[in-house]
Design goal:
2 domains; 4-stranded antiparallel beta sheet; Immunoglobulin-like; 6-stranded antiparallel beta sheet; mainly beta
Length: about 290
């Protein structure tokens, strides 16, 4: 307080010095911590969908054999939005020579090859012969599509099988005339339960139309083979009505132009004269199919 009384100027200077000492603690001065601030915005863009731009499809083997070949179908797809990310599906239509779709196959993406594949389709034995088409269609996540095709050849296959056999005339006394084979009705010497030769069915399980013919052998005694019933004692017809045609040792046509996946019937009867001893008699009956 004495300093204040002595000189007013000194007092003022003293206060000013004190203020200069305090202000640097409150205000910014060069060389102190940064006082910068920041604000964040964003950049944006919306990517529009583009449909797949190309697809290539391959098939093997060529030619393919019905009932034997397993088809290997694959395709590579190009899409501006990325593969496989933007691809929802790739399907393969197998199209017959007449333009009908035979089957539609799905595919799986093989990351190792970069291709969409179906390698498991076994060509059925009744697949029609001719030039087939594979139509590959790629669809992206926004329903954009692209397609392409390739062709391959399916060869014709002749194949057949029999059902409702053997031809069983049951147990009978002799003489007997026009005794039918077993039609699944039990009694009168028939075991029944299943059809055994009335009719015998010949099936075309190939891919081309077939002609069917039949031949037979003599029925030979299974205990005493000196007793032989001639093959001509068997007769057959395409319907369950007589008269029939005598079976012979040579092939005789009984059905023509039977299409793939179709069948034909053959009904059998037997005549046995007196003089045959009690025992079982057997003889082969063979059906042959040739391409119509």
């Amino acid at each position: 307080m004495a300093m204040v009384a002595m000189n007013k100027n000194i007092l003022i200077l003293t206060i000013t010095a004190a203020l200069l000492f305090i202000l640097p603690v409150i205000a910014f001065s060069p060389g102190s911590a940064s006082a910068a601030t920041e604000q964040t915005t964003y950049a944006r863009v919306y990517i529009l969908n583009s449909a797949p731009s190309s697809i290539v499809v391959y098939e093997s083997p060529d030619p393919a054999t019905p009932g034997v070949s397993v088809l290997n179908i694959n395709s590579t797809v190009t899409d501006p939005n990325g593969v496989p990310g933007d691809i929802a599906s790739v399907t393969f239509d197998l199209i017959l020579p007449n333009g009908t779709v035979w089957a539609t196959l799905t595919s799986t993406y093989n990351a190792g090859t970069g291709a969409y594949e179906n390698t498991t389709y076994a060509l059925p034995s009744n697949a029609p012969p001719g030039n087939w088409t594979v139509n590959a269609t790629a669809t992206d996540n926004n329903a954009g599509t692209i397609w392409n095709t390739t062709t391959f050849t399916v060869v014709g296959v002749a194949s057949m099988y029999l059902s409702q056999y053997p031809i069983d005339f049951g147990n009978t006394t002799v003489p007997v005339t026009d005794r039918r084979a077993d039609n699944s009705t039990a009694g009168n010497g028939y075991s029944g339960g299943t059809i055994k030769g009335f009719p015998l069915k010949s099936h075309n399980n190939g891919s081309v139309a077939l002609n069917f013919s039949v031949r037979g052998d003599n029925l030979v005694g299974q205990t005493n083979n000196s007793y032989v019933l001639g093959v001509g004692n068997l007769t057959y017809n395409g319907t369950a009505s007589l008269p029939g045609t005598a079976l012979s040792g040579s092939y005789t046509n009984f059905a023509s132009n039977i299409g793939a996946s179709s069948s034909t019937d053959l009904y059998f009867w037997i005549d046995i004269p007196s003089g045959f001893i009690e025992q079982e008699y057997k003889g082969n009956v063979t059906v042959k199919a040739t391409v119509a």
